[in-house]
């Protein structure tokens, strides 16, 4: 430490302070410089910033001006758009006015055309009216002429009719007399037949007695011969007695031969009388059979009555409900009459009893046709081909008869064939559909006009020389038919089957020959299917069935009318049966009826068809029986 008077120390201190201060000053100057530099720098930056601000402001101004410009542009565009809209509206208005003008113009034109046409139409109407009036006047005049002419003709016809009526009444009286005569002839023939049958019985008895006598005589002759041998001595008396016995024996043999000849003659006469009697009964007969209800599940039973038990020829069916115009509901009873009606209690045996005479006629040389007609399930097959049906019964009867006829010098051959008509094509039921080489057999119908016989070419024919053969044949036909049935779904009810039995008889004693055919026909179900239900194959079947049944009706009708042309060729069935329908034949139609209410409509249709057939009268049948010498050689 120094005192106040220490100048050097104080100077030194001053000097050091000065130095410090100087250094501080120099530091301050440096700082100031630095600060000034910083200020300059800041100033520079401020001016830079100012410039930047200025630039940004300029840029802003520029953008503002751009924005203004765009706004202006937008505004001008807006204006432009407005003007375009206005222009378009103006255009639209212009179009609308044009359109209205056009419409007015068109309307005007249409009105003008309409006015023109109206004028023309009025003119035409006037002309037509005038023409019509002229025509009316003309026709009135013609009508008046015609009327007066017709009145004259009517007058003439009336007087002609009066004369014809008179002739007709005379003719009717004559016919009645003829019918009366025929009836008495028939009665006489019936009596003759009864008488002949009694005679025949007597003769048969006589012949039996004669054969017994014959046997006794032969035995006695043998005894006598033994005696003769024994009586070797041979006295005159003995030889006389022997000669006497020989003469008596010869006489007995002669009587026996005479009786046999008489019997043969009687048989020929019986045939003639029997067939005359059949002819008088008419050659087309219709019988009706109603099958029983099989069980309760079949449904309600229709109201069917059999009013006349004595004649068994009537059937009354209560028809469906009918509503009158007043709204009352009623059911009509429809009566039908046939040659015979079989009620549900009747058996095949009784039915056969009625047709056995026709089977006899086939043996006598007639062509016979027995049909079964009716809807599916009405009993056609049951009646025709069941084990005790008409086919087996007919063949058994034929065997029995031809065996008996042998003692009257008749020998018969019997041949059977069985065909089916399906979709208007013939098929052989005795040979399967195809031959060994795979081809189907084409059956062909050939007619022999002279012999009135039909042959089916390519169809198997079986010689029926024993009853077993018939049964085998029926079984074979049934199996061939059922093969087809599985393929074509119950085909049996949609095809017609025809059993053809040819019978050829020859009599060695009288030199007679006869050739008859028995056709037993099981027709397809007669129900008419509604067209809406039938399609394709079913439609074809339905059309074929309807066609062939209609053709059968047409043929019978044409025969009844005595038409010159009979349309046999319109269906395969009538073509096949040509010689068994018509002049040289006897026809029987069974109409089969179902007892069920559900089948009532079809039942009535079937009975009406059968009535039409029943009202038909076909001319006399003729037997093909001839003396052999006069028969052309039949190369069967
Ligand atoms: N009289 C009858 N007595 C007893 N049963 C019968 C009689 N008739 C028919 N039937 C029976 O009624 C049914 C129908 O008969 P069936 O087959 O014979 O008719 P259908 O008319 O031949 O028919 P489809 O046209 O289908 O061949 C069978 O079961 C048959 O046994």
TrEMBL record:
One GO cellular component term noted in the UniProt record for this chain: microtubule
InterPro entries, per database record: Kinesin-like_fam, Kinesin_motor_CS, Kinesin_motor_dom, Kinesin_motor_dom_sf, P-loop_NTPase
SUPFAM superfamilies tied to this protein: P-loop containing nucleoside triphosphate hydrolases
GO biological process: microtubule-based movement; mitotic spindle assembly
Localization, UniProt: Cytoplasm, Cytoskeleton
Kinesin motor domain boundaries: 283-616
Tree of life domain: Eukaryota
Entry's Gene Ontology molecular function annotations: ATP binding; microtubule binding; minus-end-directed microtubule motor activity
Positions that bind ATP: 374-381
Keyword Endoplasmic reticulum: no
Record's keyword annotation contains Nucleotide-binding: yes
Similarity remark: Belongs to the TRAFAC class myosin-kinesin ATPase superfamily. Kinesin family. KIN-14 subfamily.
Protein name, entry field: Kinesin-like protein
Species: Staphylotrichum longicolle
